[in-house]
Every structure is written in structure tokens, then in C-alpha cells.
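New to this. Explain the following:
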Amino acid sequence: MIDTALASACRLIAGATAEWRCNPDSPAQRIYFGNHSSHLDFVVIWSALPWRRRRHARPVAGGDYWQQGRLRRYLASDVFRAVLVERESSSGDRAERARAAVEQMARAMGQEDSLIVFPEGTRSANGQMGPFKSGLYHLSRARPDAELVPVHLENLNRMLPKGESLPVPMVCRVTFGPVVPACPGERKDAFLERARTAILQLEARA
């Protein structure tokens, strides 16, 4: 009940319309990957999913933000079932943390869950999509059974830009693109560029 009410409230506040260029009701496990400019990004994607898919979609988010305060912790753990990862800015070996995060995400998918991820790793300050980090590549190799679905978010950077805490009512759009096909043996740089281009193409057609 709470998740349904929250999804409805998000759609009302964001005025988000969803466009699907792939099957929204596919039973396949998926990795939804999108551009990142707001703390609302994963909430908007999550709320745009059909109910049957939403209940098995787990956003990946920074633990340092979502573990602050009782309300955030409750939403992250009990409503979104978020996979909270350690950000790269934390102390310790960066490569080891990155490997651990990918393993954590792959395990979190289990046998039926999908993930919502943001390959840029951090929010854009100006709405322009930055380069992708390698996590999406390694996650796709760890879970080759999962479909890769690009998602373009429009106007989220204006609705809740970086540094702001209260959303500004604005019409937003979520576009789910065609599944990105697997290319066995593809090099990391080529894969990341192909995945990023899939989102840019959705932006160009919006």
C-alpha cells in the first residue's frame, strides 16, 4: 500500500509521463540504467514501472545519503528495498570497493529482481550526461542473463537540482529505450560508449 501511494504521489508531483520503446511487462530481470541529475531520479524511474515490475525493481543508491535520518532509512529499506553501496569518495582501496559494489549488486538481483542504476556515479550539476564509469560493464558481465534497458530522464535536473532539497513542480518525462543487445567479447570502453549513446539517442528523439 505504501509503495503504491508513494508511486502515485511521485507521478503527481513530477507530472512524469512514461514512454516505452520496449516491453514494459517483460518478465525478464533487467538493469535499468539512466542519466543522473537529481535525488529523485531513481524514484521517478521506479514509480513509472508497471506495478508487477516495480515490486521487483531495486534502485542502487549511495548509503551515505539514504542512511541519514529515520525517514530516509525507512524508505530505502522498507519501501524501495534499495541496494545501498559505498561511494568512491570513501576511504580505502578504490578498485576493491568497486569490485565489492558490483558483487553486491549482482547478488542483490537474486533470481527475480531488477536494478535501477546510474552509470555516471554522481549527479550532473548542469543536466549534461557525464562519462560512464566501469560498474555497468562489470555488472553486465556478472549478470549476462539480465536485459539492459536505457532510460532517459528529462527535466529532473530542473525539478530538484543538485544542492536543493525541495522539488519544484515541473512536467518530467521518462523514456525507456529498446533493450541494448549483448555483444560477447566487447571491450569495456566500446560497451560503455554504446550504452551511453543509447541514452543520448533517447534524448535526441524526446
About this structure: Residues 11 and 124 are 22 Å apart (CA to CA). The chain has one domain: 2-205. The radius of gyration is 16 Å.
